[in-house]
Write a structure and sequence with these properties.
heterodimer; A: 208 residues; mainly alpha; globular; B: 295 residues; alpha/beta; 10 helices
């Protein structure tokens, strides 16, 4: 029963252009950032060094909140939006299978979309020197494990956290307008906390 | 096996008493539910379909307590809601396949056969690859019928199923229903009286959440034998007649108003005896609750 719902969700999402639009947007953005040497790496650090990749992915955890709200907000809302709840919910489908099938199906799609960052990094570090956008010595060798490890340990937990939040909000409020409010609020809170961290690191003296 | 509904009541939070002590025995075959809009037909059907709870009362089918054992009920249920939507970017075939899997048809070959047989039955086989969002109203309705029939339901509930179907499709659907009705409980709600007469072995008239009549269409008409009188009057006289008689139907024709009244004896005054119809039974039953003179 779980697999029925899960595979339908995957199948449904893989037919939607939005999935690929998100995927290629991330891929393209990351490619351009890395190819232009736009990473915050200092002069002696490779743009695609494991440390850089790690910090990039952890920042991406915040930026992906917007995509996350779009992907994780729709699966339960879909049956309200299209008014399919009447006949779908009178079929012998367990609540847990419905809930978790839609959750994990959408989460798998979200992970797929964010995986776009990895080829983005690799392509960026290849075409940057090729087009002379950045110096070749700023790029080190690409190993898949340099990407997978921070993806699994840094980005994946953030994605899971925000996915639970957005999926939970829709199942609780049965309304998807709440998503946009909450995702923007989260984003602003992050920027504020980032700002306060910077201030406290620099010391209040400078602002006094 | 009969479906037994006993003293079912439901009041919505806005104070509307949607069902008031409804008791019905629904045998195998087609069972019609007749009633004006807002009579409680949909509430009753949604309650049987396990989509909403009742305040009190019970629904049982053999050993099965439908209000408690929802999942068991859903395995034998086919439900076509009055209003429903579709995922616009999924094909009919894919959606039916999904519903078939949810209903427990796990064998792929068997499932494919079921889905294509159903698509053929509702005349959508040629359009099976098209996205549901591109379907017309009638096609969507036929898709709804197909999804209700997946998995050979033992209890089939169809809520005003012929809305949006053209006359040919309607006949086709009714033939399909009566074929199914030979081995299944089919509960059909409608406000087309004629449909009940041609299709249903038994029917009930529901109004304001109460059962006003239960029986066969034939017996129902018999109850009014010799009691229906009709007359052509002038339009402005209607109020006088309403005071004196139980007027159950009015019909304008060529400037004259034809009225039908219920009376045990000949009311005189130029009234002529009329053959009772099922429509008379219906209007007579709901006349206590609804104002029938719509001028």
């Amino acid at each position: 029963m779980f697999w029925t719902v899960f595979s339908f969700e995957l199948n449904y999402r893989l037919r939607r252009p939005a999935t690929y639009i998100y995927f290629f947007t991330i891929l393209l953005l990351v490619t351009l950032i890395i190819a232009n040497g736009g990473s915050p790496a200092s002069e002696k650090v490779h743009h695609n060094s494991p440390a850089m990749i790690g910090s990039f992915f952890s920042t991406m955890g915040i930026l992906s909140i917007l995509i996350c709200s779009a992907v994780m907000g729709v699966p339960l809302y879909r049956d309200l939006e299209h008014n399919t709840k009447e006949y779908l919910l009178s079929s012998p489908i367990r609540k847990s299978a419905y809930f978790w099938g839609r959750f994990w199906g959408s989460f798998a799609i979200l992970v797929f979309i964010c995986l776009g960052a990895i080829p983005g990094f690799m392509i960026g570090s290849w075409i940057g020197p090729l087009f002379d956008w950045a110096k070749p010595e700023r790029y080190g060798p690409n190993h898949l494990v340099y990407y997978l490890w921070p993806f699994v340990t840094l980005l994946l937990p953030s994605l899971f956290f925000s996915s639970c939040l957005f999926f939970g909000l829709v199942s609780w409020f049965r309304n998807n307008r709440i998503l946009y409010t909450v995702s923007i609020m989260l984003f602003i809170l992050y920027l504020l906390s980032d700002f306060w961290c910077a201030i406290s690191k620099a010391g209040f003296g400078r602002f006094a | 096996m009969e479906l037994l509904i006993e003293t079912l009541s439901k009041q919505y939070s806005n104070g509307v008493q949607a069902l008031n002590n409804v008791s019905l025995n629904i045998p195998q075959g087609m069972f019609g539910l007749l009633g004006p809009n807002g009579a409680g037909k949909s509430t009753l059907m949604r309650t049987i379909a396990t989509l909403q709870k009742a305040d009190s009362g019970s629904i049982t089918w053999g050993e099965l307590n439908i209000l408690e054992q929802q999942e068991e009920m859903r395995k034998v249920l086919g439900y076509l809601p009055q209003e429903f939507g579709v995922y616009p970017r999924v094909s009919a075939e894919m959606m039916l396949d999904h519903i078939a899997r949810l209903k427990g048809l796990s064998n792929r070959k068997e499932r494919n056969e079921t889905v294509s047989a159903l698509l053929q039955k509702v005349n959508l086989y040629k359009e099976r690859k098209r996205n549901l969002g591109t379907y017309s109203g009638g096609m969507k309705q036929r898709f709804g019928i197909a999804q209700a029939l997946i998995g050979n339901p033992k209890i089939l509930i169809v809520d005003e199923p012929t809305a949006g179907l053209d006359p040919a499709e309607r006949n086709r659907f009714y033939n399909l229903l009566s074929e199914i009705g030979e081995s299944t409980i089919v509960i059909l709600s409608t406000h087309i009286v004629e449909d009940v007469k041609t299709l249903c072995k038994q029917f009930a008239i529901i109004c304001s959440g109460e059962v006003m009549y239960v029986g066969t269409p034939h017996d129902a008409v018999k109850t009014l034998d010799g009691k229906i009188w009709s007359k052509a009057i002038d339009k402005h006289e209607i109020e006088d007649y309403r005071e004196k008689y139980k007027v159950i139907a009015t019909q304008l024709s060529e400037g004259k108003l034809f009225i039908r009244v219920v009376s045990d004896d000949n009311p005189g005054e130029g009234f002529t005896a009329s053959e009772p119809t099922l429509e008379d039974v219906y209007f007579n039953a709901i006349s206590a609750k609804v104002d029938l003179v719509t001028l």
